[in-house]
Write a structure and sequence with these properties.
This protein has about 270 residues and is mostly helical. It is about 75% helix and about 0% strand. The protein has eleven helices and no strands.
Length: about 270
């Protein structure tokens, strides 16, 4: 069976995985083909990469505490490891979107602000707040147990990239005619979106073997993270006319941070 562009689904899936790895991480990957089918697969692979990146963050935090570091210091190293593996891509997008929306300019002017290489005051404040929440939340989770912090980091990484996947479904336009947003907008079909939701559901069920409280916390964290990212997506569409690469990065960091915040807040009830 072949797709409309003449390629085979298996080939598209592999090409999409390579594109996802090259887009969401710093690992050098040769991407031989970039079309809408490949882009759709790449965005569908994003939650899987998010889970893997989240596991690295969680293991670094848990390992740091095990080696004798304080929980906040270990959490700082974990967040730093995650940023290093992604090249700070999502954080850069978050800062750019904050500056664009904070400028108060119409869509064209806001997009120009976002295109600049510098970071303005709104971007700096947003980065400090988000990174601070991530570090303190992971530190609080690490004080509970290694299992809790690793599980929470994996779920947060998954839901963060799932927000990107869901933002690339049909009926979500691109704000520009070029760039990453234009390449991936509307490329994720229903099976890809459903797979991301299924992955999050599986990750929330697994901790039930350790504690039913963890499962309930996971479900709440995922639900609220997706809700907050959805509101941000709708606001970006209203202000900018659609998604851009910066919007996708901001959605990822927003959902990740929300999930960690909810998980940390629920530690008193677990």
């Amino acid at each position: 069976m072949t797709t409309k562009n003449g390629s085979r689904p298996g080939t598209d899936a592999v090409a999409g995985a390579r594109m996802a790895l090259g887009t969401f991480t710093v690992f050098p990957v040769r991407v031989e083909r970039v079309d809408r089918s490949t882009a759709g697969w790449a965005m569908s692979w994003a939650p899987v990469l998010g889970a893997l990146l989240g596991s690295v963050t969680g293991v670094v935090v848990a390992g740091g505490v095990w080696l004798g570091l304080s929980a906040p210091l270990a959490a700082l190293l974990g967040v730093g490891a995650g940023a290093l593996l992604t090249g700070g891509l999502h954080l850069d997008g978050l800062a750019d979107l904050a500056d664009g929306l904070g400028s108060g300019r119409p869509a064209k002017g806001a997009l120009e602000v976002m295109r600049r290489s510098d970071i303005g005051p709104f971007g700096v404040i947003t980065l400090v707040l988000v990174l601070g929440v991530q570090v303190l939340a992971l530190g609080q989770l690490a004080e509970l147990s290694p299992t809790v912090v690793v599980t929470s980091a994996v779920v947060a990484g998954t839901v963060g990239r799932s927000a990107v996947t869901l933002a690339c479904t049909r009926r979500v336009p691109s704000a520009r005619v070029e760039g990453l947003g234009a390449t991936v907008a509307g490329t994720v079909a229903r099976p890809g979106a459903s797979a991301s939701v299924l992955l999050m559901a599986v990750l929330c069920v697994l901790p039930g073997a350790h504690s039913m409280g963890l499962t309930i916390t996971c479900v709440a964290a995922v639900a609220l993270a997706l809700l907050v990212s959805w509101f941000l997506l709708r606001h970006a569409i209203r202000r900018l006319g659609g998604i851009t690469g910066d919007v996708l990065g901001a959605l990822s960091e927003t959902a990740t941070t929300t999930a960690l915040l909810v998980a940390a807040g629920a530690t008193a009830w677990v």
